[in-house]
């Protein structure tokens, strides 16, 4: 039997960085997709090739029906990102299929991008950039184009997990006061001097800048009522999940002047986001790029492969969900 034939059969069902593909092909009998496969395509490939491990992503939305039609050979579905709300995890567990994610690798870069959004929204980066790109031929005086100063302002963080704490650490370096709402209060060491708010309603009125740093699956957190509780002139930032936000309410809050500005990396519909945001000068937009550095994307792929290698070797997964 050849060495290739003796290796576990793995399907890389989404486009991944070269380093991840190279490692998958070196360690496994890997079939590598040239596009982000749908759940139906994954099921067909797994049945045809007797796949044992799947490296997948959110574009393959696995329902209970998809899970039920996977062959018995499949032992693990590994997500190279923190989120897994795109699949029916309970259906997989019922079939004895391990589901894993990669919660650690993207923490720093997502926190970096969150700070980029905070700075850009507070200092009117979209408007400044538009002025320069139009040729900037008009002088501005001391009363003109004024932004918000970060130092001394209050940052409200909704979701104080890994990314929320990393954002807090960065914001402290800018002299921001940190408040947070979480399902449970952190230890004093984890809080690092941050003020805990037991309810979202307690946090919002105290937040000059509000950032969401919690996973999807929590319903719509920011409704019209929630935006109304923010102080007039607050800034809203979201690098978490678009599903957490009522975008009609957000647009109304921005148009009315209740919000000074917003920084958004995620949207309810991606990539077909609501283009009304393009009409708002006080919004800084990025196309869901929280983890988009070479080092982080490689780490995410490697974390997924680590989980696959462990499960197919009979060891416990590194990061089960």
TrEMBL record:
- EC number(s) in its UniProt entry? 1.1.1.-
Q: Name one Pfam family in it.
A: 2-Hacid_dh_C
Residues forming the D-isomer specific 2-hydroxyacid dehydrogenase NAD-binding domain are 116-290
Keywords, A to Z?
A: Oxidoreductase
- Record-linked PROSITE patterns: D_2_HYDROXYACID_DH_1, D_2_HYDROXYACID_DH_3
Question: SUPFAM superfamilies from the xrefs?
Answer: Formate/glycerate dehydrogenase catalytic domain-like, NAD(P)-binding Rossmann-fold domains
A molecular function (GO) term: oxidoreductase activity
UniProt domain D-isomer specific 2-hydroxyacid dehydrogenase catalytic: residue ranges: 10-321
Listed InterPro entries:
D-isomer_2-hydroxyacid_DH (IPR050223), D-isomer_2_OHA_DH_cat_dom (IPR006139), D-isomer_DH_CS (IPR029753), D-isomer_DH_CS1 (IPR029752), D-isomer_DH_NAD-bd (IPR006140), NAD(P)-bd_dom_sf (IPR036291)
Q: Which family does it belong to?
A: Belongs to the D-isomer specific 2-hydroxyacid dehydrogenase family.
Official protein name in the record: 2-hydroxyacid dehydrogenase
- Organism, by scientific name, is Roseomonas elaeocarpi
């Amino acid at each position: 039997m050849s060495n290739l034939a003796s290796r576990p059969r793995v399907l890389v069902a989404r486009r991944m960085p070269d380093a991840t593909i190279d490692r998958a092909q070196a360690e496994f009998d890997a079939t590598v997709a040239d596009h982000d496969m749908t759940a139906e395509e994954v099921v067909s490939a797994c049945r045809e090739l007797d796949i044992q491990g799947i490296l997948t992503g959110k574009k393959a939305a696995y329902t209970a029906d998809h899970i039920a039609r996977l062959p018995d050979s499949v032992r693990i579905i590994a997500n190279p990102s923190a989120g897994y709300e795109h699949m029916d995890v309970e259906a997989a567990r019922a079939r004895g299929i391990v589901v894993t994610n990669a919660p650690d690798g993207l923490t720093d870069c997502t926190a970096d991008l969150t700070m980029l959004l905070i700075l850009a929204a507070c200092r009117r980066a979209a408007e400044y950039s538009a002025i320069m790109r139009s040729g900037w031929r008009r002088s501005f005086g001391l009363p003109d184009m004024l932004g918000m100063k970060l130092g001394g302002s209050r940052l409200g963080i909704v979701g104080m997990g890994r990314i929320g704490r990393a954002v807090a650490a960065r914001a402290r370096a800018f002299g921001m006061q940190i408040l947070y709402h979480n399902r449970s209060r952190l230890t004093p060491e984890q809080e690092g001097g941050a003020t805990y708010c037991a309810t979202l309603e307690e946090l919002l009125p105290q937040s000059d800048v509000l950032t969401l740093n919690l996973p999807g699956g929590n319903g719509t957190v920011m409704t019209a009522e929630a935006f109304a509780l923010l102080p007039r002139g607050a800034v809203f930032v979201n690098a978490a999940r678009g599903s957490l936000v009522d975008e009609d309410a957000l647009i109304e809050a921005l148009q009315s002047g209740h919000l000074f500005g917003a920084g958004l990396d995620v949207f309810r519909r991606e990539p077909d986001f609501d283009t009304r945001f393009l009409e708002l000068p006080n919004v800084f937009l990025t196309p869901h790029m929280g983890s988009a550095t070479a080092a982080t994307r490689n780490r995410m792929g490697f974390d997924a492969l680590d989980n696959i290698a462990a499960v197919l070797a009979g060891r416990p997964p590194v990061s089960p969900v």
